[in-house]
Amino acid sequence: MTKVEMKAGNFETFNVSCDDVTIDGENALRVVKTKRIYDFDINSFARLKNEKFHNGEIKVKVMSRLLPDCDERFRVRMSVFLPYQR
User: Given CA atoms 26, 50, 42, 77 in this order, what sign does their dihedral have?
Assistant: First the structure.
């Protein structure tokens, strides 16, 4: 099994910022929507670069929370997805 390092440099970003952080003593990737932040239904994500997945499993820990300055309109629209292609 190949383990992918969760480092900002391993991801390409689309309308988000991506930073290396430590949470509870573990290395993590912080992804925050930055561009067009008040537009609804805009693609915003971080995608792993140069990796091919085949007949395996993807294990991730996901934590999400609202930012202190989050607009009230977005408090019911937060979601996290882990899409993949064959």
Answer: negative
> Using CA atoms, how far apart are residues 17 and 37, in angstroms rounded to an integer?
11
pTM for the model stands at 0.71
Which two structure tokens, joined as six digits, stand for 49? 């670069």
- By CB atoms closer than 10 A (0-12, 13-18, 19+), residue 21 is exposed
Structure tokens at 22: 């430590």
Q: Show me where the domains of the chain are located.
A: 8-61
Q: Which two tokens stand for residue 16?
A: 């988000």
pLDDT per residue as tens digits for the range 13-65 = 988 899 999 988 988 898 888 866 667 677 888 888 887 777 777 788 888 77
Residue 46: Cβ within 10 Å count: 19
Query: Distance (Å, rounded) from C-alpha 16 to C-alpha 30?
Result: 10
- The full length of the chain comes to 86
